[in-house]
Amino acid sequence: MSDLRVIIAGGGLGGLALAQGLHQAGISVAVYEKDPSPGFRNQGYRIRINSDGITALRAVLTPQAYEVFAATAATPGPRMDTFDHQLNLLHAQALPPVPGLPGGGHLAVNRMTLRQILLSGLDKAVHYGARLTHYDNNASGSVTAHFADGTSVSGDVLIGADGVNSAVRKQYLPKAQVVDAGLRLLYGKVPFASDEARVSVPPELLGLWTTVVGPERRFVGLAPVQYREPMHEVTARLAPGVELGDDSDYLACVFGARREQFPCSDAELFAMTGAELQALTLSLVEGWHPGLVETVSRQDPASIFPVSVRTSVPVAAWETTAVTLLGDAIHVMSPAIGVGANTALRDARVLTGRLVQAVGGRPLAEALHAYEEEMLGYGFDAVRDSAARGHRLVSQDPLPSPQA
Fold first, then answer.
1. How many CA atoms lie within 13 A of 64 on its CB side?
2. Staple partner for 342: which of 53, 110, 153, 162, CB 3.0–4.6 Å?
3. Which residue intervals define the domain FAD-binding in the entry (predicted)?
């Protein structure tokens, strides 16, 4: 199928990584994203990129874009320690290095920076303000995607990469469940460019990811993003065609707790200003180690926003059609083991390879089935592992029984 046409619903990290891989392979691809622009809403800050994510990005990006990714990634080392609220070490963990990968396979990247890298070279392929409402399977075997503005587009494959509230999943797998995991998170950033800011943070909290667990399983997660070179110097040296916004060093600071521990309803929580969310956080870590409280107090209030943690319930394999799913659209998970983005990037790499096989003569249905079989294995393994650690460490709700 040399003239394969691929439609991707959703321009998040997974959808853009797939678009990059297909574009590099010469396959016709178009991405339809509901947001009106790439920077329309805050989608988070620091992301851990592990060996799966690094390998995927190396496979789907141009060599120049991959070098920009590696050069803009922070290398905080392999430590993922857990402390109590007085900073007594509960569990020390150092992840093994992966030879041949930058940072030994343990990187920290800024989400927006990675998104900008993934958008490079896709200007004509990404369409904004296009919210998919439904799709039709055509008698010819093609698929037509319909959007809220009344427009539509047809292709040979529709990939639902449209996130946790996926319209594609809701139509394709209406019995697939996404459930509330019982946790609420308050994401924020501590500016980290000055020497004063850096010395104020206890050094033991500056590993790849640090978890501090307090009374009633309230917790704070901390992770630094420290750049080795200014963005404009990276792109000028490696890939002048890649445009990156400026950013400065920061410490990602996430407070989390069971929903019932917040002294307000969800509606009230999600209506709070950043300053109000910071004050709420400080009230819930009162009496914790002074260095940790000081760190929380240094968050930029404008950076703080709330998130409800949700998780997919594993589903059994389905009959393969010209529609399939990728990333959070099928296997959203809690951040307890930090592999959600990596799993979506892995999806993009695997699906790119299968669609390249289809162009080379493998039947399309067979290629898509092979992707789904592999993706459902590692994807739902990650969902289960995330739920188990989240339950054990911070009282995340147990994962419901798998759906038939």
1. 13
2. 53
3. 315-379
> How many residues are given for the chain?
404
pLDDT tens-digit readout, 189-205:
999 877 777 778 888 99
Instruction: Return the CATH number of the domain spanning residue range 181-309.
Output: 3.30.9.30
> Is the CATH code 3.40.50.150 the one for domain 5-75+107-178+310-394?
no
**Per residue in 8-66, pLDDT tens?**
999 999 999 999 999 999 999 999 999 988 776 666 799 999 999 999 999 999 999 99
Place of tokens 């940072």: 103
- Could you give the angle at the alpha carbon of 365 between the alpha carbons of 364 and 371, nearest 5°? 90
What pTM, to 2 d.p., does this model score? 0.96
Task: Give which of 268, 267, 309 is closest to 179, Cα–Cα.
Answer: 309
Count other C-beta atoms under 10 Å from residue 214's C-beta.
20
| Burial of 129 from C-beta contacts in 10 A (0-12 / 13-18 / 19+) | middle
